[in-house]
Amino acid sequence: MLEHFHVPDEDRVMIRRADLFKTTTDIFESMGMSREDAELAADGLVTADIRGCETHGVSNMLRVYLQAFAEGKINPTPDWKITHETSAVATIDADKAHGLVMVPKAMDLAIEKAKKVGIGAVTIHNSNHAGMMAYHAMRAMPHDMIGYAITGGGAVMVPTYGAEPRVGAVPHAWAVPADKMPPFVLDISSSSVAANKIQLLRRTGAPLLPGLMADEEGTPIMEERPVPDGVRLLPWGSTRELGSHKGYGMAVIGQVFSGILSAGLFGVSTPPGNGSQFVAAYSIDAFRDVAEFKSSMDEFLTYLVETPPAPGHDRVYYAGLPEHEETIVRERDGIPLHREVIEWFDSTTDDLKLDLIERMS
Amino acid sequence: MLEHFHVAEDDAVRIMPDALRKTVNELFLKIGFSEQDAWQSTDVLLLSDTRGVDTHGVSNMMRRYIEGVNDGFINPTPKWTITRETPTTANVDCDRGLGIAVIPQVMELAIEKAKDTGIGMITMGNGRHAGMIAYHAMMALPHDMIGYAITAGGQSMPPTFGAEPRLAPNPHAWAVPADKEPPFVLDISSSSVAANKVQLLRRMNSMTIPGMMAESDGTPIMDERPVPEETIVLPNGATRELGSHKGYGLSAIAQVFGGILSDGAFGPYQNGHMSHVVGVYSIEAFTDVKRFKSSMDDFLKYLRETPPAPGHDRVYYAGLPEHEESIDRHERGIPLHHEVVEWFDSATAEFNLAPLER
Prior knowledge:
CATH architecture of chain A: 2-Layer Sandwich
Radius of gyration of chain A: 20 Å
Order of helices and strands of chain B: EHHHEEHEHEEEHEEHEHHHEH
Strand order of the largest sheet of chain A: 2-3-4-10-5-6-7
Largest sheet of chain A: 7 strands, mixed
Number of helices of chain B: 11
Distance between the termini of chain B: 24 Å
Number of strands of chain B: 11
Oligomer: heterodimer
Largest interface: A-B, 87 and 92 residues
Number of strands of chain A: 11
Structural class of chain B: alpha+beta
Number of helices of chain A: 10
Helix content of chain B: 25-40%
Largest sheet of chain B: 7 strands, mixed
Number of domains of chain A: 1
Structural class of chain A: alpha+beta
Strand order of the largest sheet of chain B: 2-3-4-10-5-6-7
CATH superfamily of chain A: Malate/L-lactate/L-sulpholactate dehydrogenase, NADPH binding domain
Distance between the termini of chain A: 27 Å
Shape of chain A: globular
Strand content of chain A: 15-25%
Helix content of chain A: 25-40%
Shape of chain B: globular
Strand content of chain B: 15-25%
């Protein structure tokens, strides 16, 4: 993530991964989930935090999930079922399951299929917010597979030339294992900026950058100013000249694979971030020798990070590398949460009669 | 395509698709393609030109293909082989065959796999230029399947923050059928502008657009100026703040699926060596086909009926402008730059063929 999205030093409280996992699991369990499902959901959320993707970690999401449980939108004990199935694919009705529970299970099904026939793909509907997409894609890696995950839904982003939001900022994530190099993990929204980075910008008081958003009429805001009310998300590329049709197109194709393919869902019929996902696992062995592939990946990723940097930059990265490095730091130093988030944890654990979240001393 | 990439009406010679098809097909036969491969290659080029994707049509590509065959770089009679196979996948060695001849044949195989299992995906190494990859993805449409295609190879684009080109603007294409609406066909390079659009800009003496390309040290050009001699393309998004890591990432994932998964090709691998992937998802395997197509109609209509932002009169979806352009070009002919028509005349003269009919 860009530096100005990070929690300022003076507002930080450091929490160990294991402690964040425990409290988050306790909270999910209090919502009526089995301990096993609660741990699965907590793992997805805490993985976002340990990788530095705090937009999709506990800070923004946990309170949203609790609200959704309270409103009956998330079913803590879903009776999900497969409605269509072949050797390689399946369609799942999630029975309002939490996405952080349903999507990993769907990915596990895709992995099983890929073991047998080379590829597995599963489309899911009637689900809920599924957290950081990279988490689901990454489940394929220990099986020497490439993982792919999409979540659709919502109408928060304007089409290119449009004045009204009609697509979600639908993210696509891929995870590709290497041998010695940290894996390539690409998790990209199809908007210029992820919807809940705006929330983070408002919280940290950082200004809006040119091209990140449109005004209420759909016109791209091309100068720096504080985040106004009533902004619209722009497709990745910002303007047609710079390729906003590519972000718009990625949102549409993501919606096709998740929403339309599973149950014909799109636009206003689908609450933001809600409802439909698509996961796929591609077995490397079905295409090429796994050891050779991983060694080629090492060479490719090394070649990329060794690109001479452009003036004003000191390093070149690849997707997944900064998150890998952040993980090492956060495993050691803890996860920095905004004190306001800690206060929310304390009042929540108090309400639910759970142990206080443990701070690092 | 953006208006300023189009051939100016003054410079345009209108050629009817059938006339262009005849001449292009004859040229492919002359350079040693089999009848099947010549027909197939011609069909890919013609679809680009009728859909208005001039960058990947005859104007830029035909002379390159002929040169490639003459240089011995493109094998005009490839015997492509399957090196690995499962019920849903295969890996193919293209034997240096031109992508526009080989990829459609491989796509047929992927479609067969999808009929059996629901999915087919095939990687291809040792290939040559793929043409407009939307063509390959669109082959899935008549089978009620979603098509996907990637081509990857070369190095003309720097990574985000990089000063040196280490990957290419590798494109991804998807094609999704609807019922009454024209199909959704998305074909996007991972750069701000396709590499051969820069060529087109130079030919038309157009200006740069801020954020479209970088100086030769990797610094994004953020103003309007004549296209410099030395530029490198930028990942789509232009700067990190606007999401250039997404274009960089899409390029890398294309290289992984195409090159690394097929034969390990990337970066400094032989120039012009291309790797490809085609994928097919059978709609019937996931849901009722009729229900899907009718939902697609509703979705695409919902998108194109979005109220336009100030200064715009319509909202499109990917594939809609190309569909409309195709209707127009079938009626009025394909506008080729007179310089391109002159090239055709010299090529047909050289091969003792009848000149391209105007």
